[in-house]
Amino acid sequence: MNKSILKKELEKINKKNKRRFYMPGHKGRGEDFDFYAYDITEIPGADNLHDVHGVIGAVQRKLAKIYNSDEAAILINGTTTGIHSAILGACVSGDQLLVPVNCHRSVFGALALGRIEGVFINPKIQKDMGFAQKIELESVKKALAENSKIAGMVLTNPTYYGTTSDVKAIAELLHRKGKFLIVDEAHGAHLHFNNKLPMDAITAGADVVIQSTHKILGSFTQSALMHFKGERINRQRIKSFLALLQSSSPSYPLMISVEEAVDMAYEKGEAVFEKIIQAHRRFCQNQEKSAPITLYDEVESDTGYDRSKWLFHTQGISGEQVETLLSEEYGIQCEMSGDDDVLAMTGMGTTSEDLERLTQAVWELNDKIKLHDFPGRPVGKKNGQAQKNRLTESIKTEVPLWEALTSDATERESLQDAEGRLAAAFIIPYPPGIPVLLPGSRMTPEILGYLSRLLDQGVAVVGIDGNRELLLLKEKGAIHES
Ligand SMILES: Cc1ncc(COP(=O)(O)O)c(C=O)c1O
């Protein structure tokens, strides 16, 4: 049989970049796993993820015990479907949901699927690099005071960049007012295993927590875990949505990988993350603040910074260039790069040697960049402009998000003709990856000017194509009522 084209391509990629600083957390290292042997269906004795009575129940109870939750549910369609189900199950008709705008797209997807009204709040923005740093308690208080129908809130913690909010204070505030808290802990399944990492959401008092065990722990991509704590949310409704939205053929290899990843973290997580945290600290202590590539840290954060994320800030050279140099010259592949940042993600599979090689490579690049030792590479690029022109307007929708997103009364128009019009798609600049327009929100002159400046600076804006066109609603009255 011919070898799969995809397999051949991935083998090439793996050969080139031996050091993985991107997801998943196993980094390509794991015990041999005979996928075919364990890939079965729901035959007697194997239980059924959607109707748990046997061995899957025993595994889920073990996982709940490890994380100190009341109940755990293994997910086989990622945190994405966990978030959809949690929101759809927690909200009832007419509820509002408090949503920080730096939430993952699955949160906005759930609003559309459930026809739930989002009350949007802005995060505090990190001043040098422009990403969402935290949700301030005051913003939550204000939104609750102004919106009587808020049933609860979704919070992303930690963020993709490793920053955290005061989940405990937010949970206490919401609970005092009889509201629920769902935490998207997609990037935090490891927090529980080392107490130098920020507090995990179950400990902080969240009602439902969803974790992508594949991102930093070592389960297979697409597997995840949901936890329930307390009685504030109707668990059965959420579980019904899980059965409705996830595949009716749950993969046993994915389920096994969640169990094994958590077992591994329980056994070795503390040591693995200790090594990563110490290497991060050493790097920060020894770096020159004015170096072209510096490692970001938040020593003064009240709620801690997740040092499993190695987020580099670049000056005089773009993040994209640094990512390419690390790959081409050192065989190190990072998770992502932007105008002035590069993110290297560590995980359960990261070794001391990986950390040393990354550290060494960045030191060397810093020396070479200072000497302008990169023929043909523009090292004088001034970056950070996009963030400096950051928008201050807060986001709101004038037409329900689900109506705008599913409307067939749309047309593509050029950005310059879009002033005063309603968007029919998400418009999200990367970085920082925070939507500036949701389906159903209006293009003001300020937003239009901001988007034009970003595009002029070469920033990628999801929802605006290469011809600077975007999808708009034809007119408010033309939206079909459904
Ligand atoms: C903050 C956040 N939430 C949720 C998700 C979705 O997770 P999954 O890929 O497990 O569906 C992601 C994935 O990138 C994410 O970054």
Automatic annotation (TrEMBL):
Keyword Lyase attached = yes
Query: What cofactor requirement does the entry state?
Result: pyridoxal 5'-phosphate
InterPro entries linked to this entry: Orn/Lys/Arg_deCO2ase_major_dom, Orn_Lys_Arg_decarboxylase-I, Prn/Lys/Arg_de-COase_C, Prn/Lys/Arg_de-COase_C_sf, PyrdxlP-dep_Trfase, PyrdxlP-dep_Trfase_major
What protein family does this chain belong to?
A: Belongs to the Orn/Lys/Arg decarboxylase class-I family.
Coiled-coil spans are none
Keywords of the record, alphabetical order, are: Aminotransferase, Decarboxylase, Lyase, Pyridoxal phosphate, Transferase
Q: What is the protein's name according to its record? A: Aminotransferase class V-fold PLP-dependent enzyme
- Indicate the segments forming the Orn/Lys/Arg decarboxylase C-terminal domain, all copies: 394-454
Give residue ranges for domain Orn/Lys/Arg decarboxylases family 1 pyridoxal-P attachment site. 8-296
Which molecular-function annotations from GO does this UniProt entry contain?
carboxy-lyase activity; transaminase activity
Top-level taxon in the UniProt lineage: Bacteria
Q: Which Pfam families match?
A: OKR_DC_1, OKR_DC_1_C
